[in-house]
Amino acid sequence: MKKLVIITGASSGIGKCLATQFSKKGHPTLLLSRSLDKMEDLNLPNSLCKSVDVTDLEKMREAIKEAEEKYGKVDLLINCAGLMLLGHPEVQAFEEWSNMIDVNIKGILTGIHIVLADMKSRNEGTIINISSIAGRKTFDNHSVYCGTKFAVHAITENIRKEVADSNVRVIVIAPGVVDTPLLSHTTNEEIKDNYDEWKKTIESGLDPLQISNCIEFAYSQPQDVCIREIVIAKTKQLD
Ligand code: NDP
């Protein structure tokens, strides 16, 4: 059997696509999100599905321990879980931007905290964090979301350098718009309508499969080759 892959945010969008793709390649998977039924519905072989909030360190630790006992050490952690609740911070509810900071920033660090020391001691392993083009540029109504994704870029690059000597790869993927339910969680209808209107100028977002293919490509390089960052968007997307 191939090595264990952990995917957070596996119940929807990009994470769901990653789960299917890595499973098809023969990897056992640990699928994490809060929606157990959606992950179980994928009905993947050699797959452990756990309802876990990525900000809950102890639940994450328990799930990873159980998966490693079943399938061996984790070789790839893909931090995909994320939230995009657009708005202006002086208007938007505290819970919205606070939650986004927790999930998008703390939620990548919990998994990293649990698996990284062991990867270093084994001199192998890969961590892939999904950031965004909003982790490189700013956009209206995106201040906190951009802040969280700039943080994902910074955390990734910093850890990459810290663990490079141990042969562990840390990679960031920065997609432009992808067709997933991500925007649907924004509560401000006007912002959603304007976003949808703008999206028409690029016809549609990327297919989640195109992100999944990039991730598989980066992971499939030899362990001593690190594709540090992939930025991918529709050709017609200007920013
Ligand atoms: P979706 O909304 O389709 O998926 C988000 C996933 O994150 C779901 O599986 C959701 O599961 C999970 N999630 C959210 N909160 C938590 C939590 N507290 N604990 C565990 N899981 C959680 O969006 P995408 O697939 O588009 O998003 C995936 C990543 O890609 C995100 O990090 C996003 O920022 C990034 N991205 C997306 C772009 C796009 O245009 N779609 C562009 C650039 C980056 P559940 O609710 O079941 O817990």
Automatic annotation (TrEMBL):
Keyword Zinc assigned to the entry: answer is: no
Q: Which UniProt keywords apply?
A: Oxidoreductase
Q: Name one Pfam family in it.
A: adh_short
Tell me its family: Belongs to the short-chain dehydrogenases/reductases (SDR) family.
Q: Which organism is it from?
A: Clostridium gasigenes
> Would the keyword Oxidoreductase turn up in this protein's UniProt record?
yes
Q: Which GO terms describe its molecular function?
A: oxidoreductase activity, acting on the CH-OH group of donors, NAD or NADP as acceptor
What is the recorded name of this protein?
A: NADP-dependent 3-hydroxy acid dehydrogenase YdfG
Q: Record's InterPro entries?
A: NAD(P)-bd_dom_sf (IPR036291), Sc_DH/Rdtase_CS (IPR020904), SDR_fam (IPR002347)
Q: Which residues form a coiled coil?
A: none
